[in-house]
Amino acid sequence: MPTKTSSIRVAPVALHRGFERRINRVAVVKSLRRRVALTMGVFGVIVGVGAGLPAYGQSLEQPVTVPQTQSLAVVNTPDTALTIARDTYTVYVPPALQYPLAPGTSLSSGFGPRQCNGCSTYHEGVDLTPGAGTPISAIAAGVVVVASSAGPLGVHAEIEHVINGESVRSVYAHMETGSLTLRVGDPVLVGQVIGTVGDTGNSYGAHLHFELHPQGASAVDPYGWLAARIG
């Protein structure tokens, strides 16, 4: 005898509208919470990575400077000029003290007592004869205190120096007319040309009359004084 089966259909239960709205609201809130959590996590990772970038970037941007120095030692002796070749240029260091004319220049009259026709019996300087027009150099740095073309010295100049702490006055006389361009108060460097050998004033032939007066006192043998300090 065949068995009969029967199916029972269950009708969906109709929920109250108010309860259905509450269920939907809960589902939406849970979905939003998951999205917010995910977003905040990603943001936290970005912020964490970004926080470390400025310091790293700054350390890369700061230049590294390696100081480079060059030194040049110059040693000079008082009797000779010093020339130093350096790369593509030359450094010239003048001596602190020098002769007014080239060493070995002939001497026509020395210092001290002398006998000559029409000249002083006591010579307060030396007469040097390198030839007319020869440049005359200042023996050291100083200041011009006399610049004149009058009197028995003819065209002459006097320069005040401080040499090794000692005040010294040098005198250059009988220079050529027009060769002296210095004025009182002008500063002078060692070796600077102050005029040329001439025959002005009480002179008997072109020569340089040269005197030295240490401490503003009486004249001394100028070449002996220089030789003791130059060597």
Report the sheet with the most strands, covering strand number, pairing sense and barrel closure.
7 strands, antiparallel
Structural class: alpha+beta
Question: What would CATH call the homologous superfamily of the largest domain?
Answer: Glucose Permease (Domain IIA)
The number of helical elements comes to 2
- State the CATH class of the largest domain: Mainly Beta
End-to-end Cα distance: 155 Å
Query: What would CATH call the architecture of the largest domain?
Result: Distorted Sandwich
* Largest beta sheet: strand ordering: 3-6-13-10-9-8-11
- The arrangement of helices and strands along the chain is HEEEEEEEEEEEEEH
Shape: rod-shaped
Low-confidence stretches: 53-60
Provide the gyration radius in Å: 51 Å
Mean pLDDT: 78
Number of strands: 13
Domain tally: 2
What CATH calls the topology of the largest domain is Glucose Permease (Domain IIA)
Helix content: 10-25%
Which percent band covers the strand fraction? 25-35%
